[in-house]
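Exercise (ungraded).
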Amino acid sequence: MFEIKAKDNRGRVGVLKTRHGDVKTPNLMPVIHPRKQVIDVAKYGADIVITNAYLIYKDEDLKKEAIEKGLHELINFDGPIMTDSGSFQLSVYGDVEITNKEVIEFQELIKTDIGTSLDVPTAPFVTRKEAEDDLEITLKRAKEAVEYKNKQNMEMLLNSVVQGSTFLDLRQKCGDELTKLGADLYPIGAVVPLMESYHYKELVDVVMNSVSHLPDSVPRHLMGAGHPMIFALAVAMGCDLFDSAAYILYAEDDRLLSTRGTFKLENLKEMPCSCEVCCRYTPDDLRAMPKEKRRDLIAQHNLNVSFAELRLIRQAIYDGSLMELVEERCRAHPKLLEAVRQLGNYKDDLEKYDPRSKKSAFFYTGPESLYRSEVVRHIKKLRKMPKKRDLIVLPPSRKPYSKFIRGKLGDFYIYGSEQEIDLDNTDFMVLDVPFGLVPLDIDEIYPLSQNDSPKIHDVSSIEFIEDFLSEFVEYYEQVLIHSKIIKDLGIGLYNKCLSDLDIVYKKDDVKKLKAIADYQFGIGAGDALFTGNINVEKSKKTGKIRHVYDGKVLIVNMRASDSYLILSKEGAKRLHNKMPYPLNRVIVNKDSEPFALDGKSVFCKFVVDCDYDIRARDEVLIVNEEDKLLAYGKSLLSACEIKEFESGQAIKTRKGMK
Ligand code: GUN
Ligand code: ZN
């Protein structure tokens, strides 16, 4: 019913299947008023819409027509339709003239594609007692709805809405309880007041604490979110659907939506975008128009902007540049900047979902970039690496750093530590933004070369790095000495000293391969893989390592795009022999053993367990429950997704061991 095609952080491009067709996600469902609708939203790009079943139910004529002709004919839309249940009316008027069961029954009767139970939207910042009491009702009704749907064998898909106000443990609890029900979609409710009052930071807390307690295989809908300014942020947090009446409500009020905020027509001298409306008319033209015509044109612009943003977001997910987009969008408003900083507190959660490497380079856009998965991951890996006695920290130069370092190190280092240098016992690292320290041996791996950031050019940015590097201090005290030297001398002089005083960094292919293997598969993998008569074949064009053999037997290939090692049959065997269970492993059940041996891809439902450090694009070993090596391949998902998903491919097998 929901298939994930591409991922970036918690964001995903997916396909939602309904009986009225498939919908690409992330997507926006324009709100259709069952009686007053004036805009043909399909014409402006809507693939799916939402309307209100309760409003139809309450209106005798609409109700009769909906029952006779069905919802799709009633609102004249032949794609998928979601219906809301009257909960919003409940939250505004305190009461509705329909029961939970009745609204479920009615939605199925009028053939909605996705119906909603009668949840209780609890406002933010209420008392705990109120939130708990409301939540109890919401959960009871969600359960009743799912049970009723199953008993009646209803065809419509069902929403179960997450509530819990701004109590994060209640959001978590609600997520856990709703997950047990197995609903078809999980909207996150009662966030409109947060968005209207610019409480985006609290929105991040509410969404992250809901999403992290919901299943990954089910789409999530951020209810009432319709401003394109927040789409990218919400998608990065794992939201797949948006809905809103904003496009028309803002238009009625002469306000134009944009990813930079909202523009009042009365203040506009220029039209804000390049949609057909903005290209064809000037603000004066619009102001001179009759109210209704103007409203329709602004609504059209509002929809254009919203759908354009969603296209951009989906493309960013395919490219792996979603966080760059989020950081850019969040500069539209200080409260959004606060929100993206708050998202930094959930960096470990986002990292679990982020693919190991991406098509696009990592672009540093500001201090918020330091909390991205790539940085978090690198720091974790660095901490696991064995520490040698000495550390030589070099200032950044061209990337990959190792390629541009030449010469011999002289007295300069002594200036910092007054130690003799034992080169075999020395780590060479580059002091880098945003990755902190980059060991020269692994600096070609994604994203350590595939990134760009402004040059460290002055003392203030050194101070900033120093702050960031406090993470490393317990491991590499010398970093501080180096940054102190940089500060004392000034970056220009530091660079000059290093280039004047020859630096010794011996390039050694096997040493480098071992370091990459240790970084990629865990400490010990390098020694396991690269023993025997190692010879290295390089690209004639780029000089980069391509294939590595023991004698004539291929051990690994190096992937050109990200410099990760791709196992051969021999490589898989060597890794399996030396790396302890369950490292790098995906464990499959008995039934799928012959398929794996045969080189067939592994589906999630056959996976019994796996190494929790596996991420999409990792090279993995496929074993049975006795740890017999069956095959090896490339993971398409993160460990947490492999464990949870019941359908779809987990591993694209390279070869079976048969
Ligand atoms: N529309 C906006 N917020 C909500 C909510 O919390 N619940 C429902 N059912 N609809 C909404
Ligand atoms: Zn426009």
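Further reading is listed at the end of the chapter. For now, observe: The first helix runs from residue 53 to 58. The longest strand covers residues 11-18.
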